[in-house]
């Protein structure tokens, strides 16, 4: 079979995939918008196979959270970053390859790969882009904000990618269902759930006995349902509760929480991924009630550290753990249900400890990213031959 060329504007799960492909001697190259100095900890991949095209992404990253206050500039910058890396890789594909590109970065390079006798796989980490745009529009309106929407140029580009791709890989049943609901042939959509980096995430401590700590890790945004968690947390009955928030806070959330009680909420900002195992291990529960995403990797990280998870089907939770065993799967937009599950864990500490044990066992069974690699390689070996 052809060797694999990857494109990912950032890191996401694509470097985990690259490590797996390298193990099977299948990786040709991985192209990324990340600058090389940001990739020094990406071990397991031959240095000469990591190709960087940082001219748009690096300045964007340098602006940090300030870019969120400039939506028009952010939209144009995103578009140029996605377009430029796609064009550049297309020019550098000289022989047959199987291209796996993050959606929005592979239209021209995918066409080039196919023209040379290779294959094109569009890898979509979130729900179908039209479904995504619609549900986020509803969610922003729910909180009284105007939704700028996904750039129409990106929507059209992704729809074209879905059309010409040989296959579309997705991480969860939730995402697959959104593609089917939007009229994409079910056989074209291949579900391969993500894993967790077990060598980095393991239980290294215990939650405090004198307080109940709820943990959040990720962008603090409307999309990820942060206000639903905050409302649930404020309803909790506990003499010493704490909501520990790790991640950058988006402008809309800053505006909303001006009228909210955040007395027991600690905002830590962004922290290195290497430091998170301690926070997962020393929290009673991790909560991520996302309105829409593919399969949030932070859930697997939390489970690996023995931290029970409360999440939604729209976070891909159903492909990672079982409701009532390693945590709870709750409906989107339901502060009351989140509150009820948190209160249950407060009132039933033995059950919470059992869920912690179950979480570690669950992640060991799925073997972290190794299972993801085996499943992806199995798919590639069977389907790419089939396409010839």
From TrEMBL:
Gene Ontology molecular-function annotations: glycosyltransferase activity
InterPro entries: Glyco_trans_1
Keywords assigned: Transferase
Stored SUPFAM superfamilies: UDP-Glycosyltransferase/glycogen phosphorylase
Spans through the membrane: none
Domain of life from the UniProt record: Bacteria
Pfam families the record matches: Glycos_transf_1
Domain Glycosyl transferase family: 200-360
Protein name: Glycosyltransferase involved in cell wall biosynthesis
Organism: Runella defluvii
Taxonomic lineage from the root: Bacteria, Pseudomonadati, Bacteroidota, Cytophagia, Cytophagales
């Amino acid at each position: 079979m052809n060797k694999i060329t990857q494109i990912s504007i950032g890191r996401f799960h694509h470097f985990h995939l690259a490590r797996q492909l390298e193990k099977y001697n299948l990786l040709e190259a991985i192209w990324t918008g990340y600058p090389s100095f940001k990739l020094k900890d990406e071990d397991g991949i031959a240095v000469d196979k990591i190709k960087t095209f940082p001219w748009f992404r690096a300045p964007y990253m340098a602006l940090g959270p300030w870019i969120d206050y400039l939506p028009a500039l952010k939209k144009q910058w995103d578009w140029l970053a996605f377009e430029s890396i796609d064009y550049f890789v297309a020019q550098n594909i000289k022989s047959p390859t199987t291209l796996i590109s993050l959606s929005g970065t592979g239209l021209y390079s995918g066409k080039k790969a196919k023209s040379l006798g290779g294959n094109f796989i569009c890898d979509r980490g979130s729900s179908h882009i039209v479904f995504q745009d619609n549900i986020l529009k509803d969610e922003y309106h729910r909180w009284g904000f105007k939704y700028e929407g996904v750039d129409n140029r990106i929507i059209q580009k992704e729809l074209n990618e879905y059309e010409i791709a040989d296959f579309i890989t997705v991480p969860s049943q939730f995402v697959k269902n959104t593609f089917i609901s939007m009229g994409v042939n079910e056989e074209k959509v291949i579900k391969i759930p993500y894993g967790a980096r077990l060598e980095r995430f393991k239980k290294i401590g215990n939650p405090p006995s004198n307080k109940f700590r709820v943990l959040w890790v990720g962008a603090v945004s409307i999309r990820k349902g942060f206000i639903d968690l905050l409302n649930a947390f404020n309803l909790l009955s506990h003499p010493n509760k704490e909501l520990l928030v790790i991640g950058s806070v988006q402008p809309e959330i800053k505006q909303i929480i001006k009228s909210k009680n955040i007395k027991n909420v600690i905002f830590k900002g962004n922290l290195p991924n290497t430091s998170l195992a301690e926070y997962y291990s020393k929290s009673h529960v991790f909560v991520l009630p996302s309105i829409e995403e593919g399969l949030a990797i932070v859930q697997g990280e939390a489970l690996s550290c023995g931290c029970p998870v409360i999440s939604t089907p729209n976070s891909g939770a159903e492909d990672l753990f079982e409701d009532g065993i390693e945590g709870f799967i709750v409906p989107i937009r339901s502060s009351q249900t989140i509150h009820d599950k948190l209160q249950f864990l407060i009132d039933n500490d033995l059950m919470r400890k059992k869920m912690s044990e179950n979480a570690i066992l669950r992640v060991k069974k799925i073997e972290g990213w190794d299972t993801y690699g085996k499943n992806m390689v199995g798919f590639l070996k069977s389907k790419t031959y089939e396409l010839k």
